[in-house]
Amino acid sequence: MSTAGGEGNPPAAPIRVLLVDDAADVRRLVRTALRFRGGFEVAGEAATGAHAVELVAALQPDVVVLDLGLPDLAGRDVLTRVRESAPETRVVVFSGAEADDRTWYEERSDGYVLKNDDLDYLVDLLVTVGRSHRAVASVDLPQELGSVRQARSLVRQALDDWELRHLEEEAVLVVSELATNALSHARSSYQVRIYHNPSTVRIEVRDGGTGTPEPQPASATREGGRGLLLVSAMSVSWGLEQTPQGKVVWAELAHGRA
């Protein structure tokens, strides 16, 4: 017996998709297109943002197809909560209109498709997104100065595994600054995550602190805040997201590979 994966290999597991749209006819249209294409499993459907977040946490789907015009939660809130609940789940925005802040969504999702586009384009994108593997490495670290060394070690090992050693200098500096910031200001234990995305490496530091760190202008007398200027200068983008447990400060480095 032979399959598309090669002689004797089992067929690939279906791509598990969660459909999030308040319009039942849109969900039905996408569900039908996925069934005709084959290789997909609709793991669940949600008509509200709150239900979507609940299902993402419970189902951990491969991909979420996300409408931005939900009746209860803003698109930004839904996307942020989905990322918190399932960091390895891919999200493709499927919107009825151009968002004013489309760039924000594009930076935090794996695709942005308008509903008046060819539906085959959406399905093709879901195949690509669902089959691609976003590698991730993470470590939980204590509130100790020596833990910054462990954070750097995680980043070096991940980049070595992903054959992205040319990013080591920048990535080590970024994680050092973010981890030190967590120790100095959050005063809590923290978690470091590094993701290998299609065109970037994303470094996140999650801590239990509150407040919003801000870059400060260079000063001969003040130390605080200058590290974030360095992070901003080296990154293609960086930012902060509040979570129920604290905050996530992140930065992305372009690795130059498609």
Task: Explain this structure.
This protein has 2 domains: 2-131, Rossmann fold; 135-254, 2-Layer Sandwich (Heat Shock Protein 90), CATH 3.30.565.10. α2 (49-59) packs parallel to α3 (75-85) and α7 packs antiparallel against α8. The protein has helices at residues 24-37, 49-59, 75-85, 102-108, 119-131, 147-161, 168-186, 226-234, and strands at 2-3, 6-7, 15-20, 40-46, 63-66, 90-95, 112-114, 135-141, 190-196, 200-207, 237-243, 246-254. It has 258 residues and is α/β, with parallel strands linked by helices.
Topology of this structure?
Blueprint: E1 2-3, E2 6-7, E3 15-20, H1 24-37, E4 40-46, H2 49-59, E5 63-66, H3 75-85, E6 90-95, H4 102-108, E7 112-114, H5 119-131, E8 135-141, H6 147-161, H7 168-186, E9 190-196, E10 200-207, H8 226-234, E11 237-243, E12 246-254
Parallel strand pairs: 3-4, 3-5, 5-6, 6-7
Antiparallel strand pairs: 1-2, 8-9, 9-10, 10-12, 11-12
Annotated CATH architecture of the largest domain: 3-Layer(aba) Sandwich
The CATH topology assignment of the largest domain is: Rossmann fold
Strand content: 25-35%
Helices and strands, in N-to-C order?
Answer: EEEHEHEHEHEHEHHEEHEE
Number of strands: 12
| CATH evolutionary superfamily of the largest domain | Response regulator
Q: Count the helices. How many?
A: 8
Short synopsis of the structure:
This protein is an alpha/beta fold and 258 residues long. The chain is built from eight helices and twelve strands. Strands 4-3-5-6-7 form a five-stranded parallel beta sheet, sandwiched between helices. Strands 8-9-10-12-11 form a five-stranded antiparallel beta sheet, with helices on both faces.
